[in-house]
Amino acid sequence: MQRYFGLFHFFLFPILIFSACSPRGSNEQISGEEVVLEAKGEDWVIDDSEFEIVEEIGPLEQSLIDAGLVDVEDVISGIFVDLKYSTTDNFFGQDVYGDLMRCYLQPEVAEMLKKAHEKLQEEHPELTFLVYDGVRPLSVQQILWDNLDKPDSVKPLYVADPKVGGLHNYGVAVDLTLAKAETGEALDMGTPYDYFGYPAYPDREAQMLREGKITKEQVANREILRKVMKHGGFSGIGSEWWHFNAYSRKDAAEKFGLVK
Ligand SMILES: [Zn+2]
Description:
This protein is an alpha+beta fold. It has 2 domains: about 1-50, no CATH class; about 60-255, 2-Layer Sandwich (Muramoyl-pentapeptide Carboxypeptidase, domain 2). It contains 9 helices and 10 strands. The protein has helices spanning about 1-20, 60-65, 70-75, 105-125, 140-145, 165-170, 205-210, 215-230, 250-255; strands spanning about 30, 35-40, 40-45, 70, 80, 105, 125-135, 175-180, 235, 245. It has a 5-stranded mixed sheet. It has a 3-stranded antiparallel sheet with strand order 1-2-3, with helices on one face. A two-stranded antiparallel ribbon has the order 4-6. Zinc ion binds near residues 133, 168, 173 and 175.
């Protein structure tokens, strides 16, 4: 709604000026669907479809665009994005992304994700991706590091050290799950996003199944995600079912700079 408003003002303002100057007084009817302006006996209808939506871009998002990153929703249609670090529903309980609501990745990585999504659509047309995180600028990584209430020695178990940088800081890692294409409702993967513990570990699934901590259905859902991500060229990690890397750290460092 906020994004729509700027443009709405842009169009509405001259209409109101015109109307105020009109000796016949105001005759405009404004609805959510269209703006109708009666002027000198003629009806002018400006349909919403003619409105180009103007995006409000904050300084953090602009810095990502300037660094050559792309909005994944511009590359892949039909996916959902819910940046958990732009809400308080995350491990830190803080919104550290502010007005950044869109997910950015290196262009090559967004193309790989597109390939994975095409495979998903081919095999499970009722499903899509729900993306939780993509690039994480170093400035944000520093905030996470500083606010993590753990001794420095164990902090790397939870977040990458901003002095070193993690693959999210290069824009080559993505956190995501599967969701129903129609509603965006996430599939049950056995744990929430950013759950720290063995039930979230892909490399502990056999043990977690034996212990009844996760179910076969949850593992089957993870396997669909892993299969299509692998098809796109990503590799998973042993401790987070939602995290996928497009490049190794060495390749990422050679190919891309850390995103400040
Ligand atoms: Zn991740």
